[in-house]
Amino acid sequence: MKKTVNVLLSSTLVLGLAMSALSAVQTPIFAKGKETTYLIAYKNDIPSDFEERIEELGGSVETVVDEVGIVSVTSNDPNFLKNIKKDKTILAAEEELEVYLDQERPEAADGQPITDVPQPDWDDPDQNYHDLQWDIKRITNDFRSHDISKGNSRTVVGIIDTGLDFDHPDLRDNADEAGSRTFVPGTKDAWDQNGHGTHVAGSIAANGKVLGVGPDLTVRAYRVFGASGGAQQSWITNALVAAANDGVDVVNMSLGGWRWMAHNYGEKGESASMVAYKRAVQYAVKKGVTVVVAAGNDSRELGNLHDMQEYWKETYGLDIKGPSRVVPAQIPGVITVSSSNEWSTDKIAFYSNYGNPIDIAAPGGDNGPEYDRLYREDPKGDYLDKRDFHYRALSTYPTYLPPYFTSDLKGYAFMHGTSMAAPKVAGIAAVIKSENPKMKPNQIAALIYKTAEDYGKRGQDKLFGAGEANIYNALTE
C-alpha cells in the first residue's frame, strides 16, 4: 500500500495548458483500466479505521488529505465503488478524473514563429525584453508601480502547476526551490519539464530581461503535472492544502475543467471532486490565502445552462440534463480571472470564458485582431495561418527545454490563455499583501476590484468582471 499524507510530501489550457498554454480541461471520458483510482469525500472527519474498511473492500489508500476529509484509493475490484458507497461515513465517491495537459502544437497552416526578437545574451545585463511586455506594462502603468512597491521576499506566491525552472536567470533569486514540492508520483522534485509553470512564475516575479508584477516577490512551486501526463484531483487538493499549511500568502491555479455539480454521471448530489475543491479553497482562505484561478479557455458563458449543455454535446456527444460547472473557476472564495488582450478595451480574448462568475480580467494575450474577427465569424474555420504570436504574453520559459513553437527564443516564450491572465492578478494580490500584511483575502480582492480599469460595459460586466486589474491604481488608492 502506498500512502501519501500531504504534511509529508515534498509538488491545471485545456492547461495547454489550454491551446498554447490555455487552461486545463478535465475529460469526462474515463477509460477504465485493470486498476482504477477513486476519490472519496467523507462527511466529516476521516474515521480512524478508514484504511481497514477500504482494504476490506479491495482498495489501497494512495493519498490522504486529512484536513479536508479527502482520500484517493486504487482498486482492481469492479464492485469497489458500489460497495464503498454503502459506508455511511462517506458523502461522495467516484472514479477520479484527471486534468490533462493538451498543449497547442505547430501545424502545417500555422502562423509563423517569431524570429525578430534577439536571443538572450545572459552576459549582457543591459539587454532586456521589457518593451515587448505590453501586458505587464499596462497593469503596472509602464512599470511605475515598481517605483512604489516590487513586493518583498517575505510574501510568497504558491504556484500549483507544472513546476519551475529554479535556475532561470530571471527567477533564481526569487524561486524557493527548498520550499517547493511535487505531488506527482514517480517524481522527486518540482522542476518544470513542461514550461507552463515557469511562464506563470515569470508574470508574477521575474526580475531580469523580463519583469513580473512584483519582481521582489517569492514564488514557490507545488507541482501537480508531469511533463505531459495528467493531474489527479487528489494531487491538486493536496497541493492547495499543503500550500495553505506552508503559510503562502497567495495561490495561483492556472488550471481547471468541467465537472457536473448536481448530476454527476446520473447521480444526485455533488461529486467528490467538487467537494474536494470547495473544502480545499475554504481551508486555504480561512488560513489567509488569496486564491486566484483562471476562468478557462472554452469561449463559454459560465453559469449559462444552455451554453454548458451545448458544450458537452458538441465536444463529447453527451446529453447533459443537469447543471455543470468549471472548477475551480466557479468555486466560492476564489478570484476568477478572464483574459483581456492588447488591442481592445471592449472585447476579451476570443478563447476566454466569461459570465457572471468572472471577478476581474487581466492581460492573457491572443492572436491579434484579424484572427479574432475570423474566429468570431466562424469558430470552426481554418485560419491558423492568420495568427500573430506577437500579441501573446512574453514570459520566462525553462532554459533547458527546446524553444516553445511560437518563437525561436531560448528561455522565453510567447503564450496566451487565461493561464497567463490569472498570475497577473496573483502578482497584484501578493504586492498588495506585501504592503498590507494584515489584509485578509476578501479585503485584497475588494481593493483589486475597486481599482480596476473599467473596460467593457460600465460597471460590472460578464466579460471583464470589475474591469482589468491594475497594481499601480491599487498602490495609489
From TrEMBL:
UniProt key word Metal-binding: no
Annotated PANTHER family: CEREVISIN-RELATED, PEPTIDASE S8
Region (Disordered): 104-125
Family statement drawn from the similarity comment of this UniProt entry: Belongs to the peptidase S8 family.
Record-given protein name: S8 family serine peptidase
UniProt keyword Protease, yes or no: yes
Active site: D161 (charge relay system), H196 (charge relay system), S419 (charge relay system)
Matches recorded under InterPro entries: Lanit_process, Peptidase_S8/S53_dom, Peptidase_S8/S53_dom_sf, Peptidase_S8_Asp-AS, Peptidase_S8_His-AS, Peptidase_S8_Ser-AS, Peptidase_S8_subtilisin-like, Peptidase_S8_subtilisin-rel
Signal peptide coordinates: 1-23
Record key words, sorted: Hydrolase, Protease, Serine protease, Signal
Domain Peptidase S8/S53: from-to ranges: 154-467
Pfam families, alphabetized: Peptidase_S8
Organism: Brevibacillus ruminantium
